[in-house]
Fold this sequence. Notes:
- The chain folds into two domains: about 25-140, Rossmann fold; about 155-410, P-loop containing nucleotide triphosphate hydrolases (Rossmann fold), CATH 3.40.50.
- It is α/β, with parallel strands linked by helices and about 425 residues long.
- Helix content is about 40%, strand content about 15%.
- The protein has helices at about 30-40, 55-65, 80-90, 110-115, 130-135, 140, 170-180, 200, 210-215, 225-230, 255-265, 280-290, 300-310, 340-345, 355-365, 375-390, 400-410, 415-420, and strands at about 25-30, 50-55, 70-75, 100-105, 120-125, 155-160, 185-190, 230-235, 235-240, 270-275, 290-295, 325-330, 350-355.
Amino acid sequence: MPPEGSLAPRSAEAAPSRPDRPDIVAFVADAETETALREGLIEAVPEGIEMRRGNVHAAIAALQKMPTPRTLIVDVGGEDQPLTALGDLSLVVEPDVRVLTVGDRDDVNFYRQVTRGLGVLEYLYKPLQRDMVARHFGPLIMRQAPQTEGVHGGRVVTVTGTRGGVGASTLAANLAWHFGVEAKRHTVLLDSDMHRGTCALLLGAKTGAGLRTAIETPSRIDELFVERAAQPVSERLHVLAGEEKLHEQPAYAQGGAAKLIDALRRRYNFVVVDLPFTGLLMHRDLLMLAHQRVLVTEPTLAGVRDTLRLLALPNGPQQPRRAVIVLNRMGLPGGLTRRQVEEALKMKVDVVVPDLPKIVGNAASLGEPAAAARGGFRTGVLDMAREVAFVRLLDASPEQSLAALAGAKRRRGLFGLKARR
Length: 421
């Protein structure tokens, strides 16, 4: 039986639901947290969340006069005595309420006191990211088992162009370069187009026969194979790419993509996959293995149409939220405006990258990352990093970005949120 003053929900038999109770209400203290909750829970709560601006004290005052929602999200950020405030909250809500909490404390002892001592279902600390909210709050709101990942496994991000030539390979290469070179995270860039892929060229890396061997004979994949097959760009950035003859089609052994990704995740913190959408089974398997999909489109009607078609694909088992939408080449002569694109999609785009053909073209010709130079392209790559990897970096010089990430690692722990628990 839950302890007195606990926020742990009782059984449904002990407290039958009533029609006058709202389904889910959130009390949040700032606009950034509100946005992360709304967008992170759009699939778990498609009808929307009743949002109220205020912290835990505002929640206490309001819930003294209104029915207790079935699920309550409450913000304890900035509170000197958050445990005491949550205890006061437990006195004004019905016992079966399901409480989710956000705040600004990131130590494990506080997390244990809140979840194990007070019975809060989950606690996340600010700044919230949409994927974080979807992954940890979403299943609880839908009353599903939380999704689990291997603690030591790297994060898989697929980058797919909605059409050919929209710049997906360029963005994938620069995102991987940012993680591996600036952020100093062990990163591999997997170019899944073995005939005409450009990722190796964009980073001045070599191609090899390792990728073809991996998909044709997955039984050969092990840690030593991965070490030898991936070609180095820097100490912590490698590229796995092929350059097969155009008249040859490598044979794909079913399950080969899963075994390859599993091996890469054991070796690298980030696996960035440049993944064209084709009818190939290997590409479909890779799409389903991602933790986060990224769709790169351009401001054209054809780009909008194909974005909607790709968004309609079912999510993979490790994908709690929709794909991140990157609007590349914004400002393209004759292209649509951002507002027109968003109205056609009926949703906001997540990242906007300006049309910079000279800068991007020169960098590609030299085999250098365009994101190394300050400007709109670099800003877009940093925004992508925030969206797909729980990483909040400053739009600053490479040295400042690295320092910011080092501080984030100290705050988040060696293996991020999963390791804190």
